[in-house]
Specification:
The chain is α/β, with parallel strands linked by helices. It has 4 domains: about 180 residues, Rossmann fold, CATH 3.40.50; about 80 residues; about 70 residues, no CATH class; about 150 residues, no CATH class. Helices cover about 45% and strands about 15% of the residues. The strands form 4 sheets. The chain has a 6-stranded mixed beta sheet with strand order 9-10-11-12-14-13. The chain starts with about 20 loop residues before the first helix and ends with a strand.
Amino acid sequence: MKRRFNVTGSCTPQRHYMVRLDDRLKKIKQNFVDYGSYFVINRGRQYGKTTTLKALEDYLSEEYIVVSLDFQMLGTEDFADEARFSSAFLDVFIRECELGSIDGADELLKPLRELARGNGYGLKVMFMTLSGVCGNSRKPIVLMIDEVDSASNNQVFIEFLAQLRSYYLKRDKTPIFHSVILAGVYDIKNLKLKLRPDSEHQYNSPWNVAAKFNIDMSFSVKQISSMLAEYEEDQHTGMDIPAIADEIYQYTSGYPVLVSAICKCIDEELPEDDAFGNAASAWTKDGVAKAVEMILKESSPLFESLVKQLDIYKELRDMIEDIIYCGRKITFSPEQKSINLGLMFGYLKEENGHVTIANRMFEMCLLNLFMAEESRGDVYARGGSDRIGFIRDGMLDMELVLKKFVEYFTEICGDKDERFIEKQGRKIFLIYLKPIINGTGNYYIEAETRDERRTDVIVDYKGEQFILELKIWHGNEYNERGEKQLAEYLDYYHKDKGYMLSFNFNRNKEIGVKRIEAGDKTIVEGVV
């Protein structure tokens, strides 16, 4: 069967190029299922949860009876009360057992079928019957439920979890499911974020028996390389697999759907693009950058969800803006509400004890969002009106961009205090720059070098990269150290020329643009 990269629904090896999950499935089985753990796989949207559950169902089938449900199969009315939920749950449970071709299913399911033919029973009776089924089963039964988010704002779901917990605690005496696996974006402990505050007891989590699910579900460079190797066996593009895998990882940090989206775009769209023309040209670093640019210009469920959550959780949005614009170092603490939300949704991650944006593509998406909201302002308009003068023979003159910005910034912010400039200076420059490169180029902030004093911006314009450091001035010694750091950074990017924009609070500063020779590197510095 012909295969392709997939970004919709679950993936299967027969139909799709995908990262092999054998190691992940082995760890889940050995570390959780074999121990009889109850746990939640909660990851951001399109993080491979459903694909993992489907593969795990097959992987466990020799030793366990696996009943895999999806709460999206239940309607809103099915959560109205215990009786409706119990009836709907049993119907789906029986159907999935029948589809699973379980040996001895007729005899095993007989008590459930008899109960399902009645009405008016609730969770208590249903669990008593399920307990009997588990006790009579020749194999341990594993219950998997996907998309628990679709139920988690219903009180009856809390009561369902409470029953599971109760049976879990007394399972040495009373048979019940050997292992229970729930999957969704929201962790069960965060149900209070979705439930309506009708009464205090709704906030108490009934799922404190769950084991911590600590298996990394992102893709490593090695895993991406293996997937590309399978693709290359079929397509023979001649790509440099390790280099392309690493480049994809640099943009995605292994976020599954973003990895697949880049590969799908390169495979299916770039060979039709006049700038590439064939697969060999598309599977290059330039091709990866172009695919990222195209993906960020399109609406997608993942990015739509990101924007929606920032609209709902304003404190999370404010934190992300501080990280992006100001380089604010926020100490990592999963107990802090906004940090916890960002981790749960997959937008944030911990790095060296601090909070940072989860991957470069999210950061670029967020920058685009923030810039779009600023597009009616004076700074954005000025960048757009100045743009025509910065393009020479179709290419960007970054030195002239700095000169014009220094003039403009001095004009509008010359009388602002140090606190304002520290908080707003870099943001103003990024807003000014956006319309200059919009539609032709893109930029992102290099997370590894960002802090409250320094931010490195990488600008891609028609295949040419500009390395630009935005720096808060803190004395000559720090300034000279910054020049050395930029020179070293230019080495990494194999560039001879870099750019620096210094926000200088020294009253005797010399405003303007100058050239500095740092070893064999040339640095164009703008001072405001």
